[in-house]
């Protein structure tokens, strides 16, 4: 038997975190518009936003709905996180990109954990679509791989200088 109260809390916590993740992804995308990171970050931000809406739909399908207070706190927390030092008095620095990608990778990893847990729960809850969850896992793995590639390149650029293009 499913503990619906705990499942609701678990999913609502992930929805709140996804809200902060969307905000961070959109900020990172905007700060990198016109760079070699911009298009990839846009695709990642769009996918994170789609996944957040999918999770919100799952909550609705299960009769739960979002916890508005948790979502608001997560949104505000992401805004406060922008105040951290990044090696520059003003503006965006190469360190900002590295740290944002690290946080995005952590968020994507947590989302993958959510989808895997829900896939197990789906065996006992017909309102959860196992095939959809499997697709979400595959997409999350692709997101994480791409974000890790971007982070590797960003870290090299931040700490060692621009990556030489192959001749």
Entry summary:
This protein has a single domain (4-160), classed as Up-down Bundle (Ferritin), CATH 1.20.1260. 75% of the residues lie in helices and 0% in strands. It has five helices and no strands.
Note the main attributes of this structure.
0% strand, 167 residues, elongated, single chain, 5 helices, mainly alpha, Ferritin
Layout: helices, strands, pairs:
Layout: H1 4-31, H2 38-61, H3 68-81, H4 94-122, H5 130-160
Helix pairs in contact: 1-2, 1-3, 1-4, 2-5, 4-5
Q: Looking at CATH, which topology would you report?
A: Ferritin
CATH architecture: Up-down Bundle
CATH superfamily: Ferritin, core subunit, four-helix bundle
Strand content: under 5%
Largest sheet: none
> What's the overall geometry?
elongated
Terminal Cα span: 61 Å
Structural class: mainly alpha
CATH class: Mainly Alpha
Mean pLDDT reading:
89
| Low-confidence sequence ranges | none
Q: What portion of residues is helical?
A: over 70%
Walk me through this protein's architecture:
The termini are far apart. The longest helix has 31 residues, at 130-160. The model has no long low-confidence stretch (mean pLDDT 89). The protein has one domain (4-160): Ferritin, core subunit, four-helix bundle (Ferritin). It is mainly α and 167 residues long. The protein has helices spanning 4-31, 38-61, 68-81, 94-122, 130-160.
């Amino acid at each position: 038997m499913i503990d619906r109260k705990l499942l609701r809390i678990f999913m609502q916590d992930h929805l709140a975190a996804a809200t902060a993740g969307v905000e961070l992804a959109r900020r990172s995308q905007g700060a990198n518009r016109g760079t070699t990171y911009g298009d990839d970050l846009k695709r990642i931000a769009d996918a994170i936003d789609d996944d957040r809406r999918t999770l919100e739909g799952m909550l609705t399908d299960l009769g739960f709905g979002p916890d508005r207070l948790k979502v608001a706190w997560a949104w505000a927390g992401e805004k406060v996180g922008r105040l951290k030092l990044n090696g520059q008095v003003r503006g965006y620095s190469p360190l900002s990109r590295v740290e944002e990608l690290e946080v995005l990778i952590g968020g994507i990893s947590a989302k993958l954990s959510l989808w895997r847990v829900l896939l197990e729960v789906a065996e006992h809850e017909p309102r959860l679509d196992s095939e959809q969850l499997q697709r979400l896992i595959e997409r999350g793995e692709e997101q994480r791989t791409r974000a890790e590639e971007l982070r590797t390149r960003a870290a090299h650029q931040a700490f060692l200088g621009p990556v030489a293009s192959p001749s």
